[in-house]
UniProtKB/TrEMBL annotation:
It is found in: Cell membrane. It comes from the Bacteria. The chain holds residues 480 to 771 of 850 of the full protein. Belongs to the cation transport ATPase (P-type) (TC 3.A.3) family. Type IB subfamily. This is P-type Cu(+) transporter.
Length: 292
């Protein structure tokens, strides 16, 4: 490709809200075979809502929610915001937080008014030594409805289950159809549990799912997709997407995402949704075809 054609192509892309931070990406995109998507905030809104709250015997729902919300007030995870909104909506008074720790990819733990409160995925409970095997059917049921199940332990005893749901962006189904029409394979990489990830993937016709990926594991998941020399584009928005955005053949950041993601990407999608990926690949194919 000539420098002039690249300039024209990236100029037209900019008019569509697709910013090429590196001009070479316009050429590389043409040869991409797989588009790998982060789930939360990329194909979903990234704004979950609390949908379920089931206290264990001996615990009151408002007591569990107030304790969990107090701990989550210290977390920056979108799940934390969902729980806080629900607690505020019920006018609950949050206790005094004496300590807090986030365990990335697992959950959070803190001390509230002298009580130890642990909240997170089933794998977090297992890691803490709390038995959650009895809830497998419940986890599967919530997952099948594309909800993310969470567990709460208070002072070392299982105190309840919560679930949050993060709606798929209205533009996502159409964008995935368009990627398929372009002959591309679509994959999803997520920290969410397998049942939830598979339900979301099934509803969208996503070809390949890599669930339960820890925050530092996205690059390894990407390497798996690149096996056999397949060229892979990765689309993400979060801090923990930054390494995969840098490592992918082409990294595309959602423009409404974090600064770290944007700075690690080759392409920035100002529209904030996946239609930008379709436009970027379409333009790449049109531009490079004209000059070969
Ligand atoms: P994702 O970006 O896909 O949500 P994360 O690695 O951030 O992936 O989180 C993976 C899982 O860890 C979440 O689905 C949730 O089960 C648990 N988790 C992480 N942070 C929190 C939190 N603040 N509160 C409760 N659970 C959490
Ligand atoms: Mg995300």
């Amino acid at each position: 490709a000539t420098p002039t054609s690249i300039m024209v192509g990236t100029g037209r892309a900019a008019e569509m809200g697709v910013l090429f931070r590196r001009g070479e990406a316009l050429q590389t995109l043409r040869d991409v075979e797989v588009v790998a998507l982060d789930k939360t905030g990329t194909l979903t809104e990234g704004r979950p809502e609390l949908t379920d709250l089931a206290p264990a015997p001996g615990f009151a729902a408002s007591e569990v929610l107030a304790l969990v919300a107090a701990v989550e007030a210290r977390s920056e995870h979108p799940i934390a915001e969902a729980i806080l909104r629900a607690a505020r909506g019920q006018g609950l008074r949050l206790g005094n937080v004496e300590s807090f720790e986030a365990v990335p990819g697992y959950g959070v733990v803190g001390r509230v008014d002298g009580r130890r409160v642990e909240v997170g995925a089933d794998r977090y409970m297992t890691r803490l030594g709390h038995e959650v095997g009895a809830f497998a059917a419940e986890v599967a049921r919530l997952g099948a409805e594309a909800r993310t199940p969470l567990f709460v332990a208070i002072d070392g005893r299982l105190a309840g289950m919560l679930a949050v749901a993060d709606p798929v962006k209205a533009t996502t189904p159409e964008a995935i159809r368009a990627l398929h029409d372009m002959g591309l394979r679509v994959a999803m990489i997520t920290g969410d549990n397998r049942a939830t990830a598979e339900a979301v993937a099934r509803s969208l016709g996503i070809d390949e799912v890599i669930p339960e990926v820890l925050p530092d594991g996205k690059v390894r998941a990407l390497a798996g997709l690149r096996d056999g020399g397949r060229r892979v584009a990765f689309v993400g928005d979060g801090i923990n997407d930054a390494p995969a955005l840098a490592e992918a053949d082409v990294g595309l950041a959602i423009g409404t995402g974090t600064d770290v993601a944007i700075e690690s990407a080759d392409v920035v999608l100002m529209g904030g949704d996946l239609r930008g990926v379709v436009n970027a690949i379409g333009l790449s194919r049109a531009t490079i075809r004209n000059i070969r």
